[in-house]
């Protein structure tokens, strides 16, 4: 298949090309993000390959359809950036990478918890500056602290397992309790009880209408003073303005974000020589108790190898008219 790979970075080229050896697809790597103005670049291709911040809304899907594209291989698990109704109406086949390395994202979430708690981001800079004072670096033992996990699928389950190893009590909320977590001793609760009981709240649900702004001023009000919130899932799970208010009042004591509601215009680019015009994002960067990473939770060798291999398998299935099992179910729409 001749495939236009949007939002390509050097690692996409290296890992997809390696996975494609022997598969024989013609992969054309396009740095541009997929959007209304770039959809026409797909003309003459058999399929496109897209990442998390590519835009697959109704207008873009119509534009892709108009140039003959009917197959989309997502290099992500999440598909909240796809207009499913339009995709179904236009007869698209859209495949994703449902699981690549839950360890990668879970371990990044825990890295954020540890860095925030032990203020590694501050001590790294201080020590390089010859300042070895401990003032302001006081942390807390994770042992016997309570971690609230919202969403105990593949990633949430790994977080539960790792945090159990620290000796934490684990609370969870998920409409489908995970038997592995139940065996670990995880206690499933309603959301208000989880918010009230947790020292750390960590988000591992997909972004859906039900989870949009799950963290908002009302839910924050239920939490313990000084709570730590970690979001490595999708930016819009968190109402950023509400979180900034709570950071200012001290209600939120620590915030770790790998995703941000308006990340599409910021993340995956080197903006170091530009002015960031997103004032909400800029405000977040001013807090000493906030760590932001640029959607790098998935970014381990193991995960991107698996993403590349599954993507090539999805393209093979497209080409042969078979199902890989990774297709998004558009049937009911
Ligand atoms: P999964 O599908 O295995 O698990 C999601 C869990 O969330 C399921 O158990 C589901 O029942 C639960 N859930 C759904 N609605 C819920 C609700 N309203 N309240 C509580 N729980 C709810 O997904 P997985 O692989 O664990 O990924 C979770 C999310 O992580 C993805 O949707 C994606 O947004 C994000 N992600 C982030 C990455 C990064 O690089 N930062 C990389 C990969 C995924």
From the structure above, extract its key features.
Rossmann fold, 2 domains, 7-stranded parallel β-sheet, 333 residues, 5-stranded parallel β-sheet, 12 strands, 36% helix, binds 1,4-dihydronicotinamide adenine dinucleotide
Could you explain the architecture of this structure?
The protein has 333 residues and is an alpha/beta fold. It has 2 domains: 119 residues, NAD(P)-binding Rossmann-like Domain (Rossmann fold); 191 residues, NAD(P)-binding Rossmann-like Domain (Rossmann fold), CATH 3.40.50. Helices cover 36% and strands 15% of the residues. It contains 12 helices and 12 strands. The strands form 2 sheets. A 7-stranded parallel sheet has the order 8-7-6-9-10-11-12, with helices on both faces. Helix 4 packs across helix 6. The two termini are 28 Å apart. 1,4-dihydronicotinamide adenine dinucleotide (NAI) binds next to helix 4 and helix 6. 1,4-dihydronicotinamide adenine dinucleotide binds next to helix 4 and helix 6.
